[in-house]
Structures are given as structure tokens and as C-alpha cells.
Amino acid sequence: MVKLIDWREIIAELELTAHHHNALALPPVYGAYCGDMMSDVLARARRGSLWITIQRHRNVIAVASLVGLSGVVISGGRVPPPDTVALAEKEGVPLFSTPLDSFHAAGRFYYLLTRAGLINPGENSTAEPQK
């Protein structure tokens, strides 16, 4: 059985503000990816991950949808423009912002993943999450 982190925990721990319709289904989250280069996310992010980035333009949603990410968190107190929010709703991609910078958001999420037993501290960062 795959362990999951409850979205309520993620939202509280990362101080997230939702920028999508409340009725949007929040898919399971199995890990995270932190990065700002679209090509890097396309090449390395894994389906079911939560993407933490400073980017806030429409291409973020296109990449998240293509990769099959479980959501996007825009860090550093940045807020997505209306066209990004509209595309996120159209594509069904949960979109959030946080006042935390990427380092602290990723650190807090790492803590949640570790506490849930989805990863082991000190493991290779490219290792598959535990199931």
C-alpha cells in the first residue's frame, strides 16, 4: 500500500494559498521537485510530484500538465497572473502560492515526506519513493 501525505498537512506546513477552483480534485502527492528551468522539470520531475518554483507564467501549467505533476507551488510570495490561473483550472492542475522561499518550502515538504515514511533521510535524491 502506498503511503500518502494529506493535502491539509501540505497546505498548512507550506502556508499555501490556493489559486484554483475549490472543487478541483487534489491528486495524490508522491514526492516533490524544486526547480525553475522548464527543460529540467520536463526531463527530471516525476509524475505525482509537487513542483516548487518561482516561475508563475502559463508555461508552468503546460509543463505540469505534460509531466503529470500533482500540483504547482509558486514560492517567494509571488502570485500567479490571471491567465496562469485560468489555464490551471482548464488543465485541472492544482496551483498554489506560498510566502516561503523555495529553499524553506522544499525543506518543509521534505520533512513531511520523511515523517510519512515516503523517503529516508540521507537517501540518494533520485531514489524512488518508498511504497
From TrEMBL:
It holds the Pfam family DRTGG. Residues 35-107 form the DRTGG domain. This is DRTGG domain-containing protein. It comes from Desulfofundulus salinus.
